[in-house]
Specification:
Elements: H1 4-27, H2 40-43, H3 45-58, E1 66-70, E2 78-83, E3 94-100, E4 120-122, E5 125-127, H4 131-151, E6 157-163, H5 173-184, E7 187-192, E8 204-209, E9 211-220, E10 226-227, H6 228-231, H7 238-246, H8 268-281, H9 284-287, H10 302-308, E11 314-321, E12 332-333, E13 336-345, H11 351-363, E14 371-380, E15 383-384, H12 390-404, E16 409-413, H13 418-426, E17 431-434, E18 450-452, H14 453-474
Parallel strand pairs: 3-6, 3-7, 7-17, 8-16
Antiparallel strand pairs: 1-2, 2-6, 4-5, 5-18, 8-15, 9-13, 9-14, 10-12, 11-13
Helix pairs in contact: 1-4, 1-14, 4-14, 8-10, 12-14
Length: 475
């Protein structure tokens, strides 16, 4: 029988004494993912955070721990740990714990006195880039195992894969999975600590993740800029051409993505879960965002809000080139416009096929015969969880009630974790506990990202308790 009170107290003390200080130092390091730091290897920031995590893990005294930094030539490193089962718990089976240490870039808009590489701990929130997304994962994973061993509670063999390429689409990870799969053995339970939370009042189980297609749209009309007074009305604007091309992808009035290939039928189970989640969360699903002025959401009905951000495609323009700052913008008709596109896809839409379709839609029959190309950069298929086994559903709810005093929740997420799709294919019989600390206003990837430490403490205790349930069920 798990003493949940003692478990929670021990984990909370561990967070205060060791994990918060470790994450504070982690936030200081600009360990940007390779897509955002092409010279990542020379700069050494990813190496620094991996080695810091390695030192911390070794210092925990987890019995039987084997730990190494695994490296493949030309690829970002992976931290791999292996903790044997206690006794005969879960004999022949393996729990895989996942997280990552690479980060998104700085982003503008941080509050005065806050910054991406300037950690600040205030009102239980640790501000800075990467703490919640999701540098905490390796620290929480080992804290959970250490707490179980301290209480003499059972756990199956636990292995961990902590990558450093996730924010770039995990393109290095398949090679590592291929290398490490024989060492991991029969994985029947996957715990991923890189997801969201609908609120901070309960444990949330992520049931799906959207896919992603990314790339750059280029519209070129001239070889060099010319005086707009001389050329406008004759030479088409590259911005207008780009705008017209985007109109092939989305309805500019509603934001609805138009090509049918980018849509999918939503399973009845996910619609039902969205209804329940929307009843729990209500208007907070909309209020969580930092709205400017009187801006209104694209949809108002709560269930539709959930489904729009988890099962429907959506286009975002995340960057632009060819547009000078306003202070330096003379009367020049610019030669080209470059727009960075991010197209979120329903979980079950194949991303490679969608990327090819996006290129075809954008490049076919360009307006005015302009030079148009789509430079594809990333394609990650989403993930839809297998049916939740009764033992896991019961364990998730019991742990949520024990540590949050509220029943658990289930919710799809709008973001992409390519690793989940890879593991779903690699271990088709595994159950998945995908969860995380990215609750309201935690703002991963944006300014003022924070880790809600009280929530993370409870989540760590929940993970520990569920690992025990897995071991007892397996035995």
């Amino acid at each position: 029988m798990t003493d949940t009170t003692t478990l929670a107290r021990g984990i909370a003390a561990h967070w205060d004494a060791e994990i918060v200080p470790a994450l504070t130092e982690y936030i200081r390091v600009p360990a940007k993912s390779p897509h955002f730091d092409a010279d990542w290897e020379a700069h050494g920031h990813i190496e620094n955070v991996v080695r810091a995590a390695e030192r911390w893990v070794r210092a925990q005294g987890v019995r039987g721990l084997a730990l190494e930094i695994v490296r493949l030539p030309g690829r970002t490193p992976v931290l791999f740990f292996d903790v044997p089962a206690t006794g005969d718990a879960g004999a022949g089976r393996t729990v895989l714990l996942y997280g990552h240490l690479d980060k998104q870039p700085e982003m503008t808009g941080w509050h005065e006195g806050y910054g991406p590489w300037s950690p600040r701990y205030e009102d239980g929130k640790l501000y800075g880039r990467g703490g919640a997304d999701d540098g905490y994962a390796v620290y929480a994973s080992l804290a959970a195992l250490k707490a179980l061993q301290a209480q003499g509670l059972p756990h199956a063999r636990c292995v961990g894969v902590i990558e450093t390429c996730e924010e770039s689409g995990s393109y290095d990870l398949p090679a590592y999975l291929e290398l490490l799969a024989p060492r991991m053995g029969r994985v029947d339970f996957v715990i991923g600590l890189d997801s969201g939370a609908g609120d901070y009042e309960r444990l949330w189980l992520t049931t799906s993740l959207r896919g992603l297609v990314g790339g750059t749209l280029v519209a070129e009309v001239l070889t060099e800029g010319v005086h707009s007074g001389d050329a406008s009305g004759v030479v088409p604007s590259s911005f207008r051409i780009a705008r017209e091309l985007l109109g092939r992808i989305e309805d500019s009035a509603t934001g609805r993505v138009l090509p049918a290939l980018f849509h999918a039928s939503i399973p009845d189970e996910r619609v039902a879960q969205a209804r329940v989640a929307s009843q729990v969360l209500g208007a907070s699903m909309v209020r969580r965002f930092p709205w400017a002025g009187k801006t209104r959401p694209m949809v108002d009905e709560p269930t539709e809000v959930v489904l729009n951000r988890t099962w429907r495609p959506a286009l975002s323009i995340t960057g632009a080139d060819g547009l000078p700052p306003i202070a330096n913008a003379g009367n020049v008709l610019r030669p080209q416009t470059r727009l960075k596109l991010s197209l979120r896809l329903p979980p079950i839409v194949d991303a490679e096929r969608a990327s090819a379709a996006l290129r075809k839609v954008l490049e076919s029959d360009p307006p005015h015969g302009a030079t148009v190309r789509f430079e594809a950069e990333s394609a990650a298929t989403g993930w839809n969880a297998p049916p939740t086994a009764p033992w896991l559903a019961a364990a998730v709810d019991a742990s949520s009630r024990a540590h949050y005093t509220q029943p658990s929740g289930a919710l799809g997420e709008g973001g992409t974790i390519p690793f989940m799709g890879m593991l779903g294919s690699k271990f088709p019989e595994a159950q998945f506990l995908i969860t995380g600390v990215l609750g309201p206003k935690s703002n991963a990837h944006g300014p003022n990202e924070f880790l809600h430490v009280p929530y993370a403490k409870r989540l760590t205790a929940c993970v520990a308790q569920i690992i025990v349930a897995h071991a007892q069920r397996s035995a």
